[in-house]
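Researcher: Sequence recovery benchmark, item below. Answer with residues only.
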């Protein structure tokens, strides 16, 4: 895209490479540009020869075709702009096809994760059924205290299942990339809550007055509150950042189109930007454009304006498009041909990203479905076994009731923790970053807890009504 707009502005091949040394948003190309200039100015090679050498060495087929084709087009004396526009259209088509394939891969990954959650459910149910013998053991032996769950159960719930989720998160990280450059500020919000929750856990463990919080009945809601408290600050920070950046991604193509059309009627590049920024309908992006317009009217340079934009925007596509727009204006005077290419590319790129997001959104619903399903099914099985034991052997001791309560509490905590972690997986799948998972993790943890409470209360009421009848 950068080479195409520069060529349309009348910039030579070698000057284009020199300009690419300032493309900090494209670090790999920046390294190649530095090497290109070094070989030409220090070693005395011809730029076309260097491009051909790079084409022979690169492992990227698309990059190799671009370099070799560009060099061949210049040597033959053909129109480099026509070649670059043709190559750009080809790359967009490849990008669109790759986007569809990536959605299919991500869909397969989510389905595999859903299967894993079903296996988790089956494992929980299997253990509940097998451990039901402990209830009868307590009843027959007349023990006054219930024996705790086996150590393997703790390993299963708090180590094996979370580890499997982390493996799926790793594959999601490799398959889905974020459009945001840096989210350090969001992840920093995660530190203080987790430290606070850790201090709270230590106090609960060592202070006798707080021991009531670890009662089997209260423990699930305490765990849910702690996990939610960990997620909320980062979720709020990410929401604020994402709203502005997604609005910029959605409105940037329209802004570039307005700049292009204003340039076509003879306005200067700066006045075209001012004219385009006055349009209504950009939503939250209007605030940034008003700032840009004010800086231009006060005589601030475009490079300085771009530096100020980078402080507010973290979206890589938006920053790249602004960078190309400014370079096109400063080098070639903002030719209408170059701006038309930029606007057309931006519109097509937006369509590709919008389609991908719309195709991935249904998987959010699937996450809530498996959270409710695991909570309901596990509770139903556990309480059904307990009620059947009451019906079969009347006069159950308090110890038998404690066994059942321990089991339900333990699996409730495991379910809440598992659904909380699955929120980060869904956030990565849907929006390309784990930071988006903070909001989903909090919502899924609360959903799982509410499902557990409702199912327990509903089943307890139904079984009481059935026994009364």
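Model:
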């Amino acid at each position: 895209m950068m080479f195409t707009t520069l060529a349309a502005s009348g910039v030579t091949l070698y000057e284009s490479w020199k300009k690419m040394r300032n493309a900090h948003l494209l670090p790999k190309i920046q390294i190649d540009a530095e090497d290109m200039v070094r070989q030409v100015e220090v070693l005395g090679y011809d730029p076309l020869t260097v491009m051909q050498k790079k084409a022979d060495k690169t492992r990227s087929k698309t990059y190799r075709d671009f370099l070799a084709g560009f060099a061949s087009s210049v040597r033959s004396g053909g129109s480099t702009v026509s070649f670059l526009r043709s190559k750009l259209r080809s790359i967009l088509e490849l990008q669109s096809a790759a986007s569809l394939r990536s959605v299919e891969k991500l869909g397969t990954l989510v389905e595999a994760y859903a299967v894993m959650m079903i296996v988790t459910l089956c494992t929980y149910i299997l253990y509940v059924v097998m451990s039901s013998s402990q209830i009868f053991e307590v009843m027959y032996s007349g023990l006054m205290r219930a024996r705790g769950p086996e150590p393997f159960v703790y390993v299963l719930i708090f180590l094996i299942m979370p580890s499997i989720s982390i493996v799926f998160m790793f594959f999601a990280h490799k398959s889905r990339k974020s459009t945001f450059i840096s989210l350090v500020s969001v992840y920093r919000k995660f530190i203080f809550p987790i430290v606070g929750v850790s201090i709270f856990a230590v106090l609960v463990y060592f202070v006798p007055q707080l021991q009531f919080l670890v009662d089997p009945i209260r423990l699930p809601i305490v765990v849910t509150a702690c996990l939610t408290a960990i997620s909320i600050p980062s979720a709020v920070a990410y929401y604020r950042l994402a709203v502005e950046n997604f609005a910029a991604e959605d409105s940037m193509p329209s802004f570039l189109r307005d700049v292009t059309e204003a340039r076509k009627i003879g306005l200067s590049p700066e006045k075209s930007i001012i004219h385009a920024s006055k349009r209504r309908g950009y939503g939250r992006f209007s605030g940034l454009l008003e700032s840009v317009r004010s800086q231009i009217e006060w005589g601030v340079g475009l490079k300085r304006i771009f530096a100020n934009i980078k402080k507010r925007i973290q979206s890589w596509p938006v920053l790249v498009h602004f960078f190309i727009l400014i370079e096109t204006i400063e080098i070639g005077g903002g030719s209408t041909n170059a701006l038309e290419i930029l606007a057309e590319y931006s519109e097509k790129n937006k369509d590709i990203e919008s389609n991908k997001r719309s195709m991935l959104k249904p998987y959010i619903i699937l996450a809530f479905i498996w959270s409710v399903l695991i909570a309901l099914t596990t509770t139903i099985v556990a309480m059904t076994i307990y009620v059947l034991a009451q019906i079969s052997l009347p006069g159950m001791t308090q110890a038998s009731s404690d066994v059942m309560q321990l089991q339900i509490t333990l699996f409730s905590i495991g379910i809440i923790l598992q659904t909380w972690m699955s929120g980060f997986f869904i956030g990565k799948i849907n929006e390309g970053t784990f930071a988006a998972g903070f909001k989903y993790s909090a919502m899924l943890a609360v959903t799982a807890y509410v499902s557990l409470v409702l199912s327990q209360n509903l089943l307890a009421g139904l079984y009481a009504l059935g026994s009364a009848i």
